Amino acid sequence: MSSARELVLIYQMGKVASSTIKASILPLPRYEVHQVHRLVPSNIERVYREHRRRGWPMPTGDPGGIYLQRDLHARRPAKVITLVREPIGRNISYYFQNLDKILGRSHAHELPLQAVIDGYPPEFPYSDDPLTWFDYEFNAALGANVYESGWAPGMNAHRWRAGVYDILILRCDAADDTKREALREFLDAPALSLRQANVTSAKPSAAMHRAFRQNVRFPAAYVDRMLGSRYANFFFDAASLAQWRRAYTESGSMTPRLLKT
Fold first, then answer.
1. Using only C-alpha atoms, what is the Rg of the chain?
2. Do residues 129 and 14 lie in contact, with contact meaning Cβ atoms separated by under 8 Å?
3. pLDDT in tens, 211-239
4. Distance (Å, rounded) from C-alpha 19 to C-alpha 97?
5. What is the pLDDT of residues 149-193, one digit of tens each?
6. What sign does the CA torsion over 202, 208, 210, 212 have?
7. What is the pTM of this model?
8. Which of 63, 82, 68 is nearest to 162 (CA)?
């Protein structure tokens, strides 16, 4: 791996709109850009173990960033971009990204809405990632504890230095203008523009995804566990948490039967 260019590591849990960040930075010639979810060997093995146990197709490519592990072991300086997203919305996106695998059939988005809602399991691989990923992965790999970063609820972007790493934390649901300006400053790239990638609305499952979000409601115990977590209360302000709590628990719509208490 060449060290002639500055290393930019887009390092985050899955389903937090990181593909758009990568697509926006790739045109900048001064940077060597990599996107990865896991760098800790035991966590990489967990991915393969879960896929084997469930009979899912095995991941392809280099999910663990072997070369990146070598660079990090050598403490190569890097700019690190990570994103945060409210945990239930993140898990819904993960569910739809893997809908065929989880429900065990092709074109699962063509099932009746209630069947897709009923298929949402309370526990599936990495369902606790939003709550624990920064502990078991990010801090373990980089030695950077986000809970000591100086982030405050209500922030949309925050720059933070941890050892050799210059880190930018972005809130996934921040306005595009906010994310663009934060990236421009962080990368010293005043002409950078956001290039949308892996957009949910462009996928075949988009209509079902939208209907699911509009109709699904979860038991209070599940919402309390996710939105009452240390992660949620550290990164998100009280008004946002209250709004999500109402949206996910208000009565009068469809509840996953597997999640009933």
1. 19
2. yes
3. 999 999 988 888 999 999 999 999 999 99
4. 13
5. 999 988 999 999 999 999 999 999 999 999 999 999 999 999 999
6. negative
7. 0.89
8. 82
